[in-house]
Structure formats: structure tokens, C-alpha cells
Write a structure and sequence with these properties.
One of its GO terms (biological process) is rRNA processing. The protein has 177 residues and is α/β, with parallel strands linked by helices. The chain has 7 helices and 7 strands; from the N terminus they run E-H-E-H-E-E-H-E-E-H-H-H-E-H. The strands form 2 sheets. It has a 5-stranded parallel β-sheet, sandwiched between helices. The chain has a two-stranded antiparallel sheet with strand order 3-4. It starts with 8 loop residues before the first strand and ends in a 9-residue tail after the last helix. The model has no long low-confidence stretch (mean pLDDT 95). The structure holds adenosine-5'-triphosphate. Adenosine-5'-triphosphate binds next to helix 1 and helix 7.
Length: 177
């Protein structure tokens, strides 16, 4: 079976590190399709209700993966989500982990109205590099890029690097998996 003609990229990281902003700029620059998983889960009800402790939807991973399977098989997607271990490894050609210094992330999350346990959980997630570890446990290390996302300059540099990666990407020949 022929492989996909365009790559799939996963952009992950703690909430507030800039996944959606980076993914939408990259989608504009490359004409790849941006999938904001959080929005998709809400829109298509790919969840098992609302977690009133964590103040977020309880993701149904099977429903989400079934929903995305055909799109991912076709290729040409930028998937943006704050978790990564449950996606099939074969979906992605590149996994980007965005990281933000804690004081900057604190300001971004408080500006967005996060407080209490939710704020604390997200800051700890970034301090302990939970998403970087999750990516390293779930994907080949040579397809992972860890990128700083502290400033607008970082964001535009990251988009340029990723745009160049997309331009140089070539489909894997059938039989050369
Ligand atoms: N590198 C950056 N420099 C400056 N501001 C940034 C940067 N990245 C993100 N921001 C700002 O931080 C806020 C959060 O960004 P964004 O929504 O893209 O993060 P996210 O990782 O997608 O969050 P979530 O997982 O909650 O959707 C936005 O106001 C955005 O403009």
C-alpha cells in the first residue's frame, strides 16, 4: 500500500505553550490541515462528559482515534493536543514538543483565567516535562523536536524551521517502512 503523500505533524505541550498559535501559523504557511483536537472533541462529542475536578472534558480516546483514522491515513495534517501517548505511532512523521519557561507560562495561564489546582497542575506538568517524557516514551526519538516557545520570535523561528522541514519531506517508499 502506498504511503501518504503529505506528512502528518503532531504539536504537543502543556496547555498555554502555544500549540494552537503555532499550528495555525504553520497550517497557513504550508497549506496543511490544522486539527485542534480540543475543539474537535467538543464539537463531535468525543468525550465521556465533564470532569468537574479537573474542569475539562473526559476524553474518549477510542472515539477520537476512530474519528481521525481516515484523515490521518490520507496525510497532510497538523494535530494540536496536550497529550500524545494514545495516538497510533504510525500516524506521525514529526512530533513537536513546545516548552515555555514557568514564569511566562504562569502569566499566560492566569491571563486565561486559570487558578487554583488547575493552574498548579499545568505548571507542574511543564516543570516536570511531562509532555516531553510522554513523547519520548511513545515515538522514535529521531522524529521528535523539542522547541522553546517563550516569545513571538521563538514562535516565528519555530514556524520557519517546521515549514522548511515540510518542504523537504518526502513520502516513504512502499515496502520501506
Ligand atoms: N511563543 C509565544 N510567544 C508569545 N505568546 C505566545 C507564544 N505562544 C503562545 N502565546 C500566547 O499564549 C496564549 C496561549 O497560546 P495557545 O492557545 O496557542 O496555547 P496552547 O498550547 O494551544 O493552549 P491549549 O492547550 O490550552 O489550547 C495565547 O494568548 C498566545 O498568543
Amino acid at each position: 500500500m502506498a504511503g501518504r503523500e503529505k506528512p502528518n505533524i503532531l504539536i504537543t505541550g502543556t496547555p498555554g505553550t502555544g500549540k494552537t498559535s503555532t499550528a495555525s501559523l504553520l497550517a497557513e504557511a504550508t497549506h496543511l490541515h490544522h486539527i485542534n483536537v480540543g475543539e474537535l472533541v467538543k464539537e463531535k462529542h468525543l468525550h465521556d462528559g465533564w470532569d468537574s475536578d479537573l474542569l475539562c472534558h473526559i476524553l474518549n480516546e477510542d472515539l477520537l482515534c476512530d474519528e481521525l483514522e481516515d484523515t490521518m491515513t490520507n496525510g497532510g495534517n497538523i494535530v494540536d493536543y496536550h497529550a500524545c501517548e494514545f495516538f497510533p505511532e504510525r500516524w506521525f512523521d514529526l512530533v513537536v514538543v513546545l516548552q515555555t519557561d514557568n514564569s511566562i507560562l504562569y502569566d499566560r495561564l492566569t491571563n486565561r483565567g486559570y487558578s487554583g489546582q488547575k493552574l498548579q497542575n499545568n505548571l507542574e506538568c511543564e516543570i516536570f516535562q511531562v509532555l516531553r517524557e510522554e513523547a519520548e516514551e511513545s515515538y522514535r526519538h529521531d522524529i521528535i523536536k523539542v522547541m522553546a516557545s517563550n516569545t513571538i520570535e521563538d514562535m516565528s523561528d519555530n514556524v520557519e524551521v517546521l515549514k522548511a522541514w515540510v518542504a523537504s519531506w518526502r513520502p516513504v517508499e512502499a515496502g520501506c517502512t
